[in-house]
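Field reference: sequence -> structure
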Amino acid sequence: PPAAPALSALVQVRWHDGARFSRVLPPGEGSVDLPSASEPVEVLRSYAKLGLEHIAGGLDHLLFLLLLVFVVRTPPRALLTVTGFTVAHALTLGLAVAGVVRLPGAAVEPAIAMSIVVLALELARGRRASWTFRHPISVAFAFGLLHGFGFAGALVEAGLPRSELGPALAAFHVGVELGQLALVLLALGLMRVLRRVERPAERVAAYATGIVATFWTFERVATLWGL
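Structure field:
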């Protein structure tokens, strides 16, 4: 919208016959073409696109997933671990959108950044006997609950059609998962290419993401405190 170009907007139209039309208007778009009648498929397409765009632009979520892949190393373990992360953030995403559980975004964002710092520290230490390396699924699930509140914040900010809440939420989640799957496949492919220097690659990833996430943590805490 022109008044707030960085924000998405939810456009909802209701015809006299009771039919409805809902679409998310992304940043930079100031108009929308209305169909002659309600098109439920447009809701699915629009929210799936929003989910994909959110995960693609959510560098903190992407870096967390990248570190998870470096921790587990193999495709089977990566699949199970990312599944744990997915189930967890789907749970809190649904609860938050339904209004059952809510956390302020200003508090969630520093915690998400801190989750990356914790994982980066574990990877840098390389202690394979630690809980993170032995039980990556439980770690991914625990932090996934936190990341789900971050996804919920973006979805609530964009707006949700109450009459089509279920389909919109499911479509958003599908978009997020497609983005996650693409990143995991890319990370596994990168690890395969760098197999001969896998340990140095792990350390580079750990220190680089750890530094960035530490900066994010301080920055977001400062914002939370109004500094």
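Note: The two ends are 29 Å apart (CA to CA).
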